[in-house]
Amino acid sequence: MRLVPTILCGGAGSRLWPVSRELHPKPFIRLADGQSLLQKAFLRGATLPGVKEVLTVTNRELFFKTEDEFREVNKAQLPTSFILEPFGRNTSAAIAAAALHVVKAHGEEAIMLVLAADHLIEHQESFANAVIDAAELAQQGKIVTFGIQPDVPETGYGYIESEGNKVLRFVEKPSLEKAQEYLESGRFLWNSGMFCFKAGTMLQAMEQHCPEILAATKACIEQSRRAEGKGFAELELDAASFAQVPDSSIDYSVMEQSSLIAVVPCNIGWSDIGSWSALGDLSAADDNGNRIDGSALLHDVSNCYIQSNKRVVGAVGIDNLIIVDTPDALLVADKSRAQDVKHLYAELKAQGHDAHKHHLTVHRPWGTYTVLEEDPGFKIKRIEVKPGASLSLQMHHHRSEHWIVVSGMARVVNGDNELFVRTNESTYIPAGHKHRLENPGMLNLVMIEVQSGEYLGEDDIVRFQDTYGRV
Amino acid sequence: MRLVPTILCGGAGSRLWPVSRELHPKPFIRLADGQSLLQKAFLRGATLPGVKEVLTVTNRELFFKTEDEFREVNKAQLPTSFILEPFGRNTSAAIAAAALHVVKAHGEEAIMLVLAADHLIEHQESFANAVIDAAELAQQGKIVTFGIQPDVPETGYGYIESEGNKVLRFVEKPSLEKAQEYLESGRFLWNSGMFCFKAGTMLQAMEQHCPEILAATKACIEQSRRAEGKGFAELELDAASFAQVPDSSIDYSVMEQSSLIAVVPCNIGWSDIGSWSALGDLSAADDNGNRIDGSALLHDVSNCYIQSNKRVVGAVGIDNLIIVDTPDALLVADKSRAQDVKHLYAELKAQGHDAHKHHLTVHRPWGTYTVLEEDPGFKIKRIEVKPGASLSLQMHHHRSEHWIVVSGMARVVNGDNELFVRTNESTYIPAGHKHRLENPGMLNLVMIEVQSGEYLGEDDIVRFQDTYGRV
């Protein structure tokens, strides 16, 4: 039996702003142990017995960052493959594309285990046991969903009424009263958004229940770019034809329609970490009910969650607050209103505010850059280039650049010259000079770039050649 | 009649942390109109009719910064002189030194107007009228205090019981009950800490009531360095002998002892801005009672004061909070607990934490520097040098420095070379090279310094020559 963990890398995490941003969504949030939710999802699938590869469906903007995340934890160097979406198109499209991909690679009998990238599962062993049960049902031709045994009358989740592995019905998010009733009945489970099925079974079910989604996805794949080779996407979905795929959740398109559905009830320490309140609850509180991640000074403070990586937070006479500090944005919210943080996220998006889109540290295929200071006439960046990576061969019309290497070594093209710049050496790139920065070493290259000029916008860039297809 | 406004630049402002720091105390706090409390105090005295100079008693560590503050607002180029204390020694010592200084310069008949540097007076015209009354009484040989007509039963101030200009008694900070009684009686005034007297009168009173303070201050002045000339201290008090001056407030040493005391009752919009709550109240609130200085996004927020210069603050479901954000420290406090912010200040001091001592931007005689980034192996600073100013001729054993001029022009000594470095040019100072940086221009010089080396402490500096006496 071939089991292919298939990670759907979604979840904006608008309620986890300011740590989550459009280009740093919820799966990339790191927990106190240093691992991101995405890394935890990867390991969740990768460490199951007999797993030989992991498939991930993600936004193409997040591809390089996703690869970086996997590289950090993929000690066994398990092969990874990717389906890159130009934009989110709901779970039916993602699962259709993944199933078509798996059938092409491994045939219809291959079993897919669909995992969310933005959830937490505390008990890996119980989870692995549930997967064994699910895979057995899948082999018998079932489409299996994982039902979480509820312990509180949660109104934010969908429910499944069940008997053993049999699904009686799916229920939308209930009222508190209903949720209480469900909890007490012992017959209801939370719909976790994780699934297990044979790739062929899913394609047949789609053929039957949502043929237009399947057909449009097939058509899209035919238009799409397939790239093989190290560190590159397997399949980058074509934007125009992907836009033709109907936007629908797999729950609606298949789960609620098919007669093949089964459920595996499980008790695996599952949480969708829906808010700062839920995230805060993951760590132990001190005697006053406070949870501190970072540096804080408290005077008569109780039941607060404080996260601050750089700044010291001084707090006086406050109770039940969430304080989350990042380099360019700060959140202060009452814990009981944690769900409403999404309104700030939406408002920042509407304003086109930078603090909605990305952090001060911006991820690029070759590494990261951080704007340290910006003033009329100059801008200072810290640039970090991964070993072996290379920025595009480029030119700026309006700005000159001073480059000072502070760690590692750089290979630099500067006009007609090619040179090595070592730690504590510098070079100067006049406006109009073609240039390229590369890290030929084995360690990260850290460079300080001082830009000088009348116009310093990121769009003053002419790319001549680029390893990552950005010309 | 010669009237010499004498500013006592005191007030730590521990309740106004994180904006106030040991080396950026309360008088330097800027209000929403862009002026600091110190600048307001300067203008308060300097714009009185007939004033020809301003005398300031301040800590020597704050001298250059104080001069910078004055320069910004001293459009009339009124002469300024300074008495520099090595440490605070309470108001009696400061006033004794100032009175001795004024008698030496202008004789015993000169009238001194002692002003606090950390208060606010809203009605300058009423204040000027009160000063006319006070000066008249001073000319008649009185030691005059300004009594503020109370409008709330404040328990944080001392009170004066009075009849007309006659002081019946001074009262320490009262209980709320007593304060209420005082307020209703109409016979009590707040003791504002502002005074007016002939310099000779004060010295005679001190001779009579606290002769040991006067004698010790005289002895100290004999040991002290007197420097004349542009931009330099008149009198830098000798530390060892200043330590011999008894530590006592002028209220205790003179005001409560002398029979010459008079009071001028006044209604001048006085406030000592004792906390963030008081400071917040200076600006107008929006419909929800919020006062915002900076960038904030509010969702169901009421009665909050939010100050943030750089970061965006997102707030959800909070009420009656103070949020003050600075580059390296953040305060979140319940407004009703604004007084308790001083406990954080004390705790940071006890820890020796940087956020107690200074801001990320550090003031030097020649300008400022800001650490933008610090990592093992390198440190990046933004350095701003005032026109005509010069850093010391210096050398570092362990670090090399890359200097990039991003605004203005620098004259640089680099080993045996002397060169000009213009905007968008750079130079490299190897470890062990003697070097000096100077701004020969008319505009501020802004430079980015990238330090590289195994040890980057501020104490790796050998000074050979220094304009500001720091060799």
From TrEMBL, chains A, B:
- E.C. no: 2.7.7.13
Gene Ontology molecular-function annotations: GTP binding; isomerase activity; mannose-1-phosphate guanylyltransferase (GTP) activity
User: Do the record's keywords include Nucleotide-binding?
Assistant: yes
What are the entry keywords? GTP-binding, Isomerase, Nucleotide-binding, Nucleotidyltransferase, Transferase
Q: Where is the MannoseP isomerase/GMP-like beta-helix domain?
A: 300-348
Domain Nucleotidyl transferase, by residue range, is 5-286
- Highest taxon above the source species: Bacteria
Which catalysed reactions does the entry list for this protein?
alpha-D-mannose 1-phosphate + GTP + H(+) = GDP-alpha-D-mannose + diphosphate
Family membership: Belongs to the mannose-6-phosphate isomerase type 2 family.
What is the designated name of this protein?
Answer: mannose-1-phosphate guanylyltransferase
